[in-house]
Known about the structure:
transaminase activity, 3-stranded antiparallel β-sheet, binds pyridoxal-5'-phosphate, single chain, 11 helices, alpha/beta, 2 domains, Aspartate Aminotransferase, domain 1, Aspartate Aminotransferase, domain 2, 16 strands
Amino acid sequence: MSNQKPIYVTQPQLPALQDFTQLLGQIWDSKVLTNGGPFHQQLEGALCDYLGVKHLALFTNATIALVTALQALRVTGEVITTPYSFVATAHSLLWNGIKPVFVDIDPDTLNLDPAKIEAAITPQTTAIMPVHCYGNPCNVAEIQRIADIYGLKVIYDAAHAFAVNIDSGSILNHGDLSVLSFHATKVFNTFEGGAIICPDAKMKQRIDHLKNFGFVDETTVVAPGINGKMNEMQAAFGLLQLRDIDAAIDARQAIDARYRTALNGVPGVQCVSNTAASRTNYSYFPILIDSKYPETRDNLYFRLRQHDIYARRYFYPLITDFPMYRGLASASPSNLPVAKKIAEQVICLPIYPNLTEADQSRIIAVIRGG
Ligand SMILES: Cc1ncc(COP(=O)(O)O)c(C=O)c1O
């Protein structure tokens, strides 16, 4: 083991503590801790402006937001989704009693391959749940074309896609609903948190009811809603985070560029590129290790750990390898050859605004020294 300080795959960007305690002071004065208080309302408005979206409902985390998004659209039966994601994507389906149907990914975008969706549609299919993996935009036009032909809803797991734009504007304006995560590991965080983005006020109202137990007013409950509300402390923190977000993304961009230059031409190391976005957030830095590299992906992963560098194999294992999914016919490895291969090759390297050049050089040296 080395005795250098550990480098983790990410580290949250935090506002100045005194700025946060000042906002906490306001919460202490008002005694409004949750239930759609002033900070919650302010953050919803500020995020709509920043992201370029019409309506946004804040949540306690993205997993509850995904579960609620499916409820809001009354999705049932079967939903087509990707095996190459964090387990919460598929778990949100099981929490609604919905059967996930896994479809393989595209080798370039690492997102659900639109060309393989139609073959997976059955009379029970009601929706598609793609993921903008690493913030790389899905082929939204093609997915919408298929959804329109078959009358399917589209819910994007946009947990990684904060502030990602394509030529037409925010990627979050596509599909019926999109869900963001504000978990501590994300580009924009509120300790824990998330949001549903929706195109119209009526749907936003339904989502607001669902995240508050189904309450419409003091005495009326219209649905078996959940408690998904973001609290005032998280929302106040989010307002401070938003102030610094552009600088945080710029710092990530510089780190991303340095990795690409330093790893260019290293045999067996391919940096995943994000070509479809007109603006991206540099939330992850995935590389793919192939047979031209002198050792296996796992050897490199463990060698990095010996140097106290904690890169992560996102996403390995595939969701379809976990016991609650692996018995499904669509989870069979023969149905998912691209996802299987990528899951064996991927490593996400550390990237966060405060990653120093010296620390980044340490990471690059270990990889080049392979
Ligand atoms: C693709 C994806 N979906 C959903 C989630 C769940 O988000 P949360 O932790 O906010 O519940 C995450 C990560 O945490 C994720 O990476």
